[in-house]
Amino acid sequence: MLKKTLLTFAFLIVITTFYGFNARYGVPVVSLDSGATAYSNPLLREGDYVISAYDAIIRNISEREGNDWRLMSAVAYHESRFRADLVSRRGARGLMQIMPSVARQFRIPVERAVEPEINVWLANKLWASIEQSLRLPVGIPRQDRIAMILASYNGGLGHVKDARRLARYYGENPDSWEVVARYLVLISQPEYYNNEVIRCGRFTGSRFTLAYVDDVLGRYEKYCRMAER
Predict the structure, then answer these.
(1) In the annotation, is 79 catalytic?
(2) pTM, to two decimals
């Protein structure tokens, strides 16, 4: 009887801690169609999902944050191949490869950033933060908007801003991804990264960042064909 009471008490502590955390940090509680809480068992069984076993978490959190869950799934595939336990050599964690600095930015304990629901929530918050910081005009084509956010997610917001400044400096359109991508490549050259408008210095990762953007956009198109919004 005593053992049963202690187990019940321990279970209540865990539940209280979990829901207290979500209430404090605004991480939404996601429910599966069956009514069970998705976080209690985040993996869907094969046959119950379209893109990945994390469909329920990615879909519900992304939609609540105003993002297309298929796009965020494409990011997750490229970042981790849907491996929630993945930690990179640089310390990036989880499905969306969230850096410790991002967890701290949103006041989330770093050790909890690997948890799927928190990891996806952080990625959505980071996405919104990048978009706000880029200050892209309302009328910009959606593909250009997504591409510049993806480039910032992968290569760094500062370098994308520098590329946009260079485009503006040379009289070109800073809201065109084609133009910005070209200047991201040029920032590796002294005559460009020494320009007075550059704030983040030389950028040597353009090849990887451009490939990243192309890969995620291509996979996003594939996921759009596979799954309804």
Answers:
(1) yes
(2) 0.82
